[in-house]
Amino acid sequence: MDEVVLTAADEYLHHQTVASFEQVTTTDRNWTEKGYVVAYDTSGQVLIAVGIGKYTNRDVMDAFAGVAVPGRQWNVRASRELRPDIDVTTVGPVVWDVVKPPTINRVALMPNELDVSFDVTFESNFAPIVGRPGIRRDRGITGNHTIRYFQPGRASGEVTVEGRTYRLDPERSYAYKDRSWGIRAMTGIPLPGAFWFSDPTGTPEAGLRPAPGRPEGVLHGYLNFNFGTWALSSTFTQGPDGRPVASSTGVSEGFVVFADDARPRLRITELELDFDFWPNSRRARSLQAHVALEDGTSREIHCGWRDLVYYFRGGGYFGYRGWWQGGYRGPLDAAGEVLDLTDKPTLDELYGCEEIPVECRCGDELGYGVMEPWAIGALPRYGITEDMIG
Questions:
Q1: 230 is a domain residue
Q2: H or E element: which one contains 292?
Q3: What pTM does this model have?
């Protein structure tokens, strides 16, 4: 019988199973715990994105850090063996620190050969927006069973790109945090047909398409908007005709929340979304949203692009240049590149899901946020055809 391995977390009174925190309650290799922070200055000069993933049953911890300015994107990806440094949330040059749970996190990218780095603190006066667990099963196999929460916030710190330093100020920044854990099929190299994905052996990848057996198009994603005193967070899934359909994760929901717990959160009861896409592409540039709430009120929100974008594929989501999140890469490995976002082949290779900073209007109120529409397959409602790559 294996000896029990203790971690720093075992010192706290948080146990819920007869095991140490070195173990999880399932042997499923797709068990994953993730953290993600995005932040940008509201003048639209610079954006940073950081993600960390712990894959207990793969003995992997990986992370990525991205920086974007108008027209360019930098990616840094790193992976290491999880054990014996189970409690350490640093992977190569990428740092994820919990400073004051759940309201303050520090994320950093240490100096590296791409000449891009940052040290940024996320802080929030909103309670985390916790959704219901989502589950998706296909032919008896659980492909997704996760819980997650979003948290609106602000950022402070510095970002240095090729000798130029940008300052993120809490009064002139937007940020949000995304935490999730559970079983996710999109870790390591997924099984064909398990989800939408591009060929893991393809070089280069040519955009994401529906897997065999799932020919219908779908528009899926997240919305996170912050108006200062209140914020909105929601998942969404539309079918080819633009009408809401069941989410691939088994749940699609959203809330409006208020700063400093001034009022109870309100569940979104109706969400009508009308996206505008760039011509001949799958890339969204604006959104008109009608939001109905459980208290009988409604809000009309218009969002427009801020000339910044970060493409998740650069961080290893859905596979990028042979790098898949959760894939074992040995004791320590790292990769990265700087990309020209004005180059169409580069954009086609990157397409998968994009972090799109937007300026938002709701009546007389001004806010900022991100929209993350993921357009897969043919979507006649938006004039998107199957042959469009990205």
A1: yes
A2: strand 284-293
A3: 0.92
